[in-house]
């Protein structure tokens, strides 16, 4: 069998920009050739690289390339939550408004494109330590650590506005997309305040339904006095109280 040329420092001379799945296969192929040549050290290196790529791929949503529910669950129950900074952590559940109507009117291929673009729009403007994950179906989660409540609300509402103002008509005439957001923030100001990610997710989910009931295309959150939505409800001079 012909020998393959591999860099002496254990890094294969791989072409730039190779998609992850192709890169995975390439590492596996090179590992197989090196193993037949008895070069077990470099074969192991490429097998490990293939494993790392496969693991990274298992934490990504195949449609939107955002993180998936598995990654979200691992992060929320991992050490990062226990050691988050004093300002606290915000979790926002985001749902595309009337998404079934998008699929029924324009077809599932357009619906898939909408999901991909919404995921990209949600990721824009997030702090470096924050991330977007597809929670399921047309629902996403934004996790924003080390942030106070006021900034978390601004980030969530900026995302809502970004989606509403996106030029959706360039995809299909008549297409418009908005999102509703339920934002739950937990502070670490009290030293004995334990992280309870499941409880925080349930709060975000309840607030998401509040945003839906208030007319959609809104962010619902809870301040010190009550639950509120932004922008203002049509039947309220200030905010919608739960």
UniProtKB/TrEMBL annotation:
Biased composition range(s): Polar residues: 228-242
Annotated GO MF terms: diguanylate cyclase activity
Superkingdom to which the source organism belongs: Bacteria
Ranges of residues in domain GGDEF: 87-224
Region span, Disordered: 219-242
GO BP term, example: cell adhesion involved in single-species biofilm formation
CDD domains: GGDEF (cd01949)
Listed GO CC annotations: plasma membrane
Residue stretches spanning the membrane: none
A UniProt-annotated Pfam family: GGDEF
Protein name: GGDEF domain-containing protein
